[in-house]
């Protein structure tokens, strides 16, 4: 008799001496042992555990990149020198985690920018996690102008740099579209520029005052077709107002002052 036969014989003899209740209890205990996870195996890489009870699998820098994407507005290769390579190395895993939150990762590797947007889930009702900010008329005009400046800079192979004073002058053509005086209009322009700065659309250049670089993320937010369509709308708005004023002036000249 070999060892396996001996072990089976002893097990059978032990079973014969058990009551039915003891036998059932033994079988349940055996099943629990079989179902219990092996302490030597884990689905989580022990090297990524950052705090007690951490079940995450992403390394530290990848988690920071994920947090930055969720906090917004974007990851910039220049401003986030450590997060950008971490995003590149862990792109698939980060995409998966964002998808579980109904979010989509958008990356422009050439421009060095990445951000998240709500996934198109069709008619399904899904929660919205990303914050949105309403745009005023001046906000919209400024965004369009900055996008056009970015397109011109790209065509010339240079960075898109704008000056705050120049922006105010270039937007002044829309002053007549708002029911406010000059001081009120300039205040709204300053608020729009501040909003772009707070959302990192404009980044203040070091060692300069009132000079900003336009973020390439605008290329992802507004396509060339979007710029053309919006430009036509605002052009018609501006020219329509000018035409109305010109027509009013002509009528005034025709009126007999007597």
Description:
This protein is mainly α and 258 residues long. Among the domains are: 57-118, Arc Repressor Mutant, subunit A (Orthogonal Bundle); 137-246, Arc Repressor Mutant, subunit A (Orthogonal Bundle), CATH 1.10.10. It contains ten helices and six strands. The protein has helices spanning 3-16, 20-35, 60-71, 83-89, 91-99, 137-155, 164-171, 182-198, 218-221, 224-254; strands at residues 75-76, 103-108, 113-118, 161-163, 202-204, 211-214. Strands 1-3-2 form a three-stranded antiparallel β-sheet. A three-stranded antiparallel β-sheet has the order 4-6-5. Helix 3 (60-71) packs across helix 4 (83-89). The protein is globular, with a radius of gyration of 33 Å.
CATH architecture of the domain at 137-246: Orthogonal Bundle
Q: End-to-end distance, in Å?
A: 134 Å
Global geometry = globular
Number of strands: 6
What is the averaged pLDDT score? Answer: 75
The main pleated sheet reads as: 3 strands, antiparallel
Reading off the top of the CATH hierarchy, the class of the domain at 137-246 is best stated as Mainly Alpha
Strand order of the largest sheet: 1-3-2
Helix content: 40-55%
- What's the CATH topology name of the domain at 137-246? Arc Repressor Mutant, subunit A
Provide the structure class: mainly alpha
The unreliable regions are 32-44, 241-258
Order of helices and strands: HHHEHHEEHEHHEEHH
Cα-atom radius of gyration = 33 Å
Please tally the helical runs, counting DSSP H or I stretches of 4 or more residues.
10
- Per DSSP, what share of the residues sits in E-state strands of 2 or more residues? 5-15%
């Amino acid at each position: 008799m070999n060892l396996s036969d001996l072990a089976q014989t002893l097990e059978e003899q032990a079973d014969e001496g058990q009551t039915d209740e003891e036998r059932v209890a033994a079988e349940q205990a055996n099943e629990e042992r079989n179902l219990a996870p092996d302490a030597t195996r884990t689905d989580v890489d022990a090297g990524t555990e950052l705090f007690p009870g951490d079940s995450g699998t992403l390394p530290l820098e990848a988690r920071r990149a994920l947090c930055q994407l969720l906090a917004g507005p974007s990851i910039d290769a220049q401003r986030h020198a450590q997060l950008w390579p971490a995003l590149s190395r862990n792109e698939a895993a980060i995409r998966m985690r964002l998808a579980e939150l109904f979010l989509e990762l958008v990356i422009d590797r050439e421009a060095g920018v990445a951000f998240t947007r709500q996934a198109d889930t069709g008619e399904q009702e899904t929660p919205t996690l990303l914050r949105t900010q309403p745009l005023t008329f001046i906000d919209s005009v400024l965004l369009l102008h900055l996008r056009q400046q970015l397109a011109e800079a790209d065509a010339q192979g240079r960075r898109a740099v704008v000056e705050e004073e120049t922006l105010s002058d270039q937007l002044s053509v829309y002053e007549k579209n708002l029911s406010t005086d000059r001081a009120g209009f300039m205040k709204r322009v300053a608020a729009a520029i501040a909003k772009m700065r707070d959302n990192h659309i404009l980044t203040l250049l070091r060692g300069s005052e009132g000079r900003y670089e336009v973020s390439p993320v605008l290329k992802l937010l507004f396509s060339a077709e979007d710029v053309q369509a919006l430009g036509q709308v605002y052009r018609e708005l501006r020219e329509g107002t000018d035409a109305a004023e010109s027509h009013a002036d002509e009528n005034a000249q025709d009126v007999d002052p007597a």
